[in-house]
Amino acid sequence: MGLIDPDRLRVSFEEYSSIGATDRDGLHRLALSEADGRVRDRFVDDLQELGLSVRIDELGNVFGRRPGTEDLAPVLIGSHLDSQPKGGRYDGQLGVLSALETLRILEDEGIETARPIEIVNWTNEEGARFKPALTGSGTYVGTHDLDTVLAETDDEGTTVAEALEEIGYRGTDPVGPDEVPNAALELHIEQGPRLEEAGHTIGVVEGVLGMAWLEATIRGNADHAGPSPMHTRSDALVAAADVVTAVRRMAGRLDDDVVTTVGELSVEPDSVNVIPAETTFTVDVRSYDDEVVLDAVDRVDDELRAACDREGTEYDLTELWRIPHTEFAPSVADAIEAAADGSDHPSMRMISGAGHDASYLAELTDAAMIFVPSVDGQTHNEREFTEWNDVVAGAEVFARTTRRLASA
Ligand code: HGY
Ligand code: MN
Ligand code: MN
Ligand code: MN
C-alpha cells in the first residue's frame, strides 16, 4: 500500500461533496447550517469507525484523537468543512479528508507513532454567515472570546450559540487545547494561480497575508426619485459608490501585494424610485505588511469622509476583525519540503493570500501549510477545481509530513 489509498480518498471526497451540493458541482454549506450539521455527522461517524476518541467543544470544533506510543504532545492536523455561499468542494474539505485518509492508512498498516495525532474540523472558518472568519480556531488559541463569538449573529439574527444547538454541536468540552500541540499541519487548495503558473504541484506555505475586515454605513435621505432636485439630494448609494471605487484603486497604489475587496453591499429602502437612504458595505483589505493594512484602514476612513462631504451624507466605520500577517515555523515548512522532495513532487515556497485556521495555530505552536494547485486560480465559487492527481500528490506529502512530525 502507498502512503494513502487514493480510491478511498476519492470515495470520501464524493460522499462529503454530496452533502450541501449545488447543482453545478459546488457546495453551499454555510457554517452551522443544516448541511454543515450533516457533514459533521458524517465526519464524527468516520472518526468513530477509526476507533478515535471524539470530543466536541462548546464552539462545535470536532476533534478525533489517535493515541501515540509515548506520553508526548500531539500533532494537530485538519481544516474546515464549512463553505462559502455557492462555494467550491475543495476549500477546507480537502484538508479535512487528507487528514482523515492519513489516519486511515496508519490504521490499515498498523503503524504506531510516538506522538498522538489529533484531527480537527474547525467551526466557521469562512466567516460568510457569522463574521469574522476563523472563529473556531481563533477561540481555541485564545485570541477570540468565546462568549463574544457565541453571541455573533447572522443576517437573520440567529446567534452562533442557537445555530450550534439547532444542529446538535454545542459541545461541552471547553474550547482550547487539552494539551498544546507540538506541531500543526493543514493542507489546503492555493485559491490562486501561482502554483499552476509555475507548473508546481506542492506549495510550501511560509506565511499568510494579514487582513482587516471593516463595515461602513452611510446615511443619506430617502426622497422621491422624480421631484427631488439633484442638488438637494443626499444619496447614500452615490457616496458608497465613490468609496467602493476608491477602495479598488487603493490596491496596488499602497504596496504591490495589497488586495482590497468590497464583498457585501446593502441598500435601504432598496426601491427603484426612492433615493437610497442608507447603505452598508464591507471592506476586506490584506497585505503581508501589517502597517500597510493599518494605513489602508485610515485611507478608507478618509475616502468615506470625502465622499460624505460631497454628498451631504453621514457615515460610521467599524473594524470587524483584524489578524496580523503569519510567518509559519521554518521547521514544519522544511518538513513539508523534505516530504515533497521525497515523493518527487515539485514544490515551491509561497505566501497565502487566503486566511486559514493554521494562522491562529501558529500563535500557539509550530504550524505550516501545504498547498495544491487551483485550476485557473478559481475558488470561492462553483468552478473551484483541483486536478485529482494533484489532490493525491498533496495528500501523499501531507501523510508523509504528518508521520515525520508525529515520530519525533
Ligand atoms: O477569508 C479568507 O481568506 C478565508 O477564506 N476565510
Ligand atoms: Mn478555506
Ligand atoms: Mn474559503
Ligand atoms: Mn483555511
TrEMBL record:
Residues 210-308 form the Peptidase M20 dimerisation domain. GO terms for molecular function: hydrolase activity, acting on carbon-nitrogen (but not peptide) bonds, in linear amidines. The keyword Hydrolase applies. Keywords: Hydrolase. Signal peptide: none annotated. PANTHER family: ALLANTOATE AMIDOHYDROLASE (PTHR32494:SF5), ALLANTOATE DEIMINASE-RELATED (PTHR32494). This is Zn-dependent hydrolase.
